[in-house]
Write a structure and sequence with these properties.
By secondary structure, the protein is α/β, with parallel strands linked by helices. The chain has 15 helices and 39 strands.
């Protein structure tokens, strides 16, 4: 399942296809090329497969950054979004950044890079042999740890999560250098299957022998490759120093402050390493700390930790990127299986006290139209209100139904590892009510992406037998428009109760009808990976708006949880996510998806660019934004603030097709006029 290379058919050049992530990347050439397989020895970074072509230049289909290195890996130049870069004849490795797989070029020639936000030209000064290498970003666990219902054994398992680290230097702050931790499964006795060995980092984490403490410390233990041991006083321990973890008496808060501080300072320190870029966060932080990052880069891990933690958290906190996910985990033995996924995301893990489920009445409806369902307006299940989290996504792992968070299970999270690679994405749109046909325009939205092959089918007036077959079929996404209640999904000949099907073959879905939570929960229990459902009655007009915008945001590349969060911001939270909300239907065209927030400020416009971390571009990814001739490098989940005049904002909006929020309303940059802001 390595990346595949083929010659382009409709134009000249090479197409690289990642069959695991089901995405493509094209490099255009001035004439037809004949890709030939070659070895991977010429590349500084590892690649899965490589080919060679002869061409005088290559062109990307997106403005992106190009990093140039010599054969020893030393940075010798860079181009941001097509900015000019000229290098004399020599042997070079070129990295094309922010693509949906790792793509590298190896050449012996002169180099000239130029372009704009829509395309980048890489010229070699004449026809040249160019080696092109690619590596999938997909990662699989190296094995499985089985854990009995024992806290000490759970500590031993968490101590092995760091076996996935590909380096113990600060470069592990890049997600591609962390690897996916081994799976952890509840069982009768402790066993380890696979190539799982904890790195020798010399770091220990001492926490009380309580399940809650062990669960909460798992991401930090993974990131540090630490040995987790029991002890009354929670501490981070190396040969040279100890550091108390219970910040103001709160162990969970202390653990996550250390995780965020160490990770963030690693991201700053690594600017002295592989990618020597001008990082905005470093420029903002450096005047406030007494840290020599050049010296710290080569220092042992213990010394880095000591110097990092000498800095008060209050100094670092204002500069932290937005965290991708907070995960509230009910500390049961079965939920030990979520720890590898929490660690992989570097999640803030919290084990809340026993929740107090209660019936929650929604705000009064304001729509004087028919509803997609019948009965009263109460929620379809007992729900709880998790403590708010300062993160992009919030996940609840427990029996209750959370308001304001996705609800995940260990089984749904594990399904992200079992997605069958396909070149084509299948989407089925089902509309079972003539009065709701306005929403079936989503069939035209899905598939408007040039990096994917889509098969979109719109079904009207589906029978129970027809819907049953669709739910059992191997489809990537089902968008249902119609009526739903606790008894089933309405078809033209009656109601189909999902509990009557044996298995769901639908990878992802939205059930856009009233109180579809129970039916959606059944789909996830029976095999679906993720779904969007409703908790209450929903009016037809707002439901149509939500369904249409969800289709556009998913097609843009946001995660399911991220898309729902953008739509539901400042609104009633009738919609929520079940299953693994951190996955995407498709990947972004290039890099990290952005949501632009605009507010008029006198004669100008205060603009915030909210990066939404994804599976491939998780915590620690590097993002480049170009304003005029000045690239701004930030961490991939940061919020970048800019002030524009009318011309500057217009140029910004015209540079790409991005979602835009103005006064809580969602627009798109190619449709909004700045005169209306």
């Amino acid at each position: 399942m390595n990346p595949e290379f083929t010659a382009l058919v409709d134009s000249d050049g090479v197409r690289i296809t990642d069959p695991i992530e089901r995405t493509q990347f094209d490099l255009h050439a001035p004439a037809a090329v004949s890709p030939g397989r070659t070895d991977t020895d010429a590349f500084y970074f590892p690649v899965d497969t490589a080919i060679s072509v002869r061409t005088p230049w290559l062109r990307t289909t997106k403005g992106l950054d190009v990093y140039a290195r010599d054969t020893d890996g030393n940075m010798v130049g860079e181009s941001s979004g097509g900015s000019r870069l000229d290098l004399p004849a020599d042997a070079y490795n070129l990295e094309l950044a922010s693509t949906q797989m790792k793509v590298y070029l190896a050449v012996e020639s002169e180099i000239s890079v130029s372009g704009d936000p829509s395309a980048v030209d890489i010229s070699f000064g004449g026809e040249t042999r160019v080696e092109i290498g690619a590596r999938s970003l997909h990662e699989q666990p190296a094995g499985t740890i089985t854990v009995p219902d024992d806290v000490g054994a759970t500590m031993d398992a968490v101590s092995l999560l760091g076996s996935a680290l590909k380096t113990t230097t600060c470069e592990r702050s890049f997600p591609s250098l962390r690897g996916h931790p081994p799976l952890v499964e509840p069982g009768e006795r402790f066993t380890v299957e696979g190539d799982i060995t904890r790195p020798e980092t010399g770091v220990k984490i001492q926490v009380p022998e309580k399940r809650e403490a062990v669960y909460e410390v798992a991401p930090l233990a993974f990131y540090l490759g630490a040995d987790v041991v029991p002890g009354r006083e929670p501490r981070l321990i190396t040969d040279d120093f100890e550091y108390a973890l219970d910040a103001p008496g709160d162990l969970q808060q202390g653990i996550n402050q250390v995780l965020q501080q160490v990770f963030f300072l690693d991201c700053v320190t690594r600017t002295e390493g592989y990618y020597q870029v001008d990082l905005r966060e470093r420029a903002d932080l450096e005047p406030h700390v007494d840290l020599d990052f050049a010296t710290l880069y080569g220092a042992p891990l213990a010394e880095q930790l000591r110097r990092y933690l000498d800095v008060p958290f209050e100094v670092v906190e204002p500069h932290l990127p937005r965290w991708k996910v907070t995960m509230d985990v009910s500390p049961t033995h079965e939920n030990v299986a979520v720890l590898p996924f929490a660690a992989d995301e570097l999640a803030v893990v919290r084990c809340p006290d026993d929740p107090d489920p209660s019936k929650v009445e929604p705000e009064p409806e304001v729509f004087e139209t028919f509803y997609r369902g019948a009965g009263d307006s109460t929620l379809s299940a007992d729900v709880i209100h998790p403590k708010p989290a300062n993160s992009i996504e919030q996940v609840w792992v427990g029996e209750e139904m959370p308001i304001g968070a996705s609800k995940a299970t260990p089984e749904s999270l594990k399904r992200r590892l079992d997605v069958t690679p396909k070149h084509q994405i299948t989407v089925d749109v089902v509309c079972n009510d003539d009065r709701m046909r306005e929403e079936d325009v989503v069939g035209d939205i899905y598939g408007t992406r040039d990096l994917y092959e889509f098969n979109v089918t719109v079904h009207n007036d589906v029978t129970t037998a027809g819907l049953r077959n669709l739910l059992k079929s191997d489809t990537d996404f089902l968008h249902y428009i119609g009526h739903v209640d606790d008894h089933g999904i309405r078809c033209i000949d009656g109601m189909l109760d999902v509990s009557t099907i044996e298995e769901s073959g639908v990878r992802a879905f939205i059930l856009n009808g009233c109180r579809s939570y129970e039916q959606g929960e059944q789909l996830v229990e029976k095999g679906s990976q993720v779904g969007v459902v409703t908790l209450t009655k929903v009016g037809n007009e707002p439901a149509t708006d939500v369904g249409t915008e969800l289709a556009r945001l998913l097609n843009y590349g946001l995660t399911f949880a991220g898309a729902v969060a953008v739509i539901m911001e400042d609104k009633q939270r009738q919609y929520t996510v079940l299953g693994d909300g951190g996955v995407e239907l498709v990947k972004t065209k290039c890099g990290i998806p952005l949501v632009i927030h605009i507010e008029r400020n006198g004669s100008g416009y205060s603009t915030e660019f909210h990066a939404h971390a994804t599976t491939n571009y998780s915590m620690g990814s590097l993002m480049s934004n170009k304003f005029g001739n000045s690239p701004v490098r930030t961490l991939g989940s940061s919020v970048l603030q800019k002030q524009f005049d009318s011309d500057g904002l217009r140029e910004c909006l015209n540079s790409g097709k991005n979602p835009v929020k103005v006064d809580g309303e969602l627009f798109w940059s190619d449709e909004i006029s700045i005169d209306t802001i």
